[in-house]
Amino acid sequence: MDILISMPITEAKPLMLVVAGAVLDRDGRVLIAQRPEGKSHAGLWEFPGGKVEDGETPEQALTRELREELLIEPCDHCLQPFSFASFDYPDMHLLMPLFLCREWDGIARPQDGQAIKWVWPSKLNDVNWVPADVDLAAELSHRLKDGTRYVD
In this predicted structure, what is the pLDDT of residue 39? Predict the structure, then answer.
């Protein structure tokens, strides 16, 4: 006799593909940005990045976002895949690869009204993160030691 288990049918949510970067300075600190007033999750902190547009790879999108948001230009070969978040928000499901960025041209200057700061990896768990970034920050804090730019 076969047993049929009935699962509730739920309406599918749209999938949003975004990308984020853990930009690391020469001392091994991580650049984070605070969501500005007027945006969802205002006042919470996040890794810089944004939506992947049609026709873009995640790497191309992250390069574009870092240029637009912070006026920095990552080198062509310096984005290293690190981890990803798969997070269920009430209105969508977010999929977000996180890349490490150790080299770039320019000085980080916020362009969208957001605050930025450099944080030691050991202090990442003390930050008030947007929900999708919480686990990524914990993993980065665990795998990246203060004073180094390379993960275990």
Answer: 83
